[in-house]
Amino acid sequence: MLIDWNHFTPWLSLAGGILLGIASALFILVNGRVLGISGIVGGLLSPKAGDVTWRVAFVLGLLAAPMLYASLRGPWAVRIDAGWGTVVAAGLLVGIGTRYASGCTSGHGVCGLSRLSPRSLVATICFMATGFLVVYVVRHAIG
Amino acid sequence: MKRILEHGLSEFLIGLLFGFGLILSGMTDPGKVIGFLDLFGTWDPSLAFVMGGAVAVGVVAFGLAKKRTANVLGSAMRLPTSDDIDARLILGSVLFGAGWGLAGFCPGPALVSLGAGQDKAVVFVVGMVLGMLVFEVLERRKAKAIAAAA
Prior knowledge:
Chain A has 143 residues and is mainly α.
């Protein structure tokens, strides 16, 4: 195995991860909810009375984060190789898949593993393994 | 203060913190995500540190949360109740993983990048919301069919 030392950022990634953990901790302890992005967004597509404002507020926080980040730390690296068609297909797969699985990297990955949930562990293994496989196929088998 | 927190301020601030953490960690760089998923090429292990940091804090918080019957604002805790490991969970996660590997975006980082005005993130989120709508339509059809059969 070769390590990509040029892009490896252990400390920044660890610090960012700790912030994700703190946000998830606040959300479950203050609001009593699991911080799962796909569930929060998905709930807006079948809106129920009294269940919309907090979801919109959360999404607005996510959307405002780049402004805060840019004002404190400046620009950040973004590399996107996927073409437009791939991006659309990927979005569709992520949308359908996360709703059937009732969770994504945040709800199953961060919160589910933190809850020691076997269901979330299975979900995380499945999406990570498929991610490894798809990148292998795209980059090395057909790339 | 409690009323303001109850009307979306706490969610907004937590969303802001979560989004900031996603950018700092590298999750909003699809190249970095794919570098992590490229186990058989030149591998960037950074995202393992993201997960490690997040879960280290999360384990403590959810340990505390499981012992509580109400949240800090005084309303009910909503911890997930399902422990089913079924085809929906597995196939859904496989579809999600495929999309994640293709573009390098998962839902949170895609929304944050949309907030930064990145064109491909905009298109990805449109696809993602359409995918979620497909799920809603299929679920409603299924519920109707079950209701009609009963």
